[in-house]
Design brief:
The chain is of the alpha+beta class. Helices cover about 35% and strands about 20% of the residues. A four-stranded antiparallel sheet has the order 2-3-1-4. The longest helix has 14 residues. It is flat. The chain starts with a helix and ends in a 13-residue tail after the last strand.
Amino acid sequence: MDKKDKQLIAILREDSRFTAAQIAAMSGLSEEDVKTRIAAMEQDGVIAKYTVLCNTEKLDSDAVTALIEVKVTPQMRDGFDAIARDIYKFDEVKDVYLMSGSYDLTVIVEGKNLREVSRFVTERLSVLKDVTSTATHFILKKYKAEGVVLEKTDEIKREEIV
């Protein structure tokens, strides 16, 4: 991956809706070169997915997101990789990260409601052989995600208690 590929990645991370023509104008490459480079990065797995960032506060949904810290016993040959693979196979799991600190893995889970996420933790995650403990944190509100501020105002409004 060269400097131009990194520039294309930066442009796409800003807004993946840009057309090849727009990206070409921004990068100084030809439109055909942009298409070729992006296709190669998709093929190599550098670009894994294009997605949409939604402000969930504006969606009519009771969906819940939780950050779950997980302590595990690493396996002899695979370390943390095997248990991470076991965890990321669950449909509810959106992200899995190996972490430094007191917990080994951070797992981001989405569910239809609190009960569904709680059931996932108690019946599916915590019973895995190498999981020794979990700590679940429910995300109450997102202020900024993926570098995007989700509120239109810089000021957080609170009601005055009289």
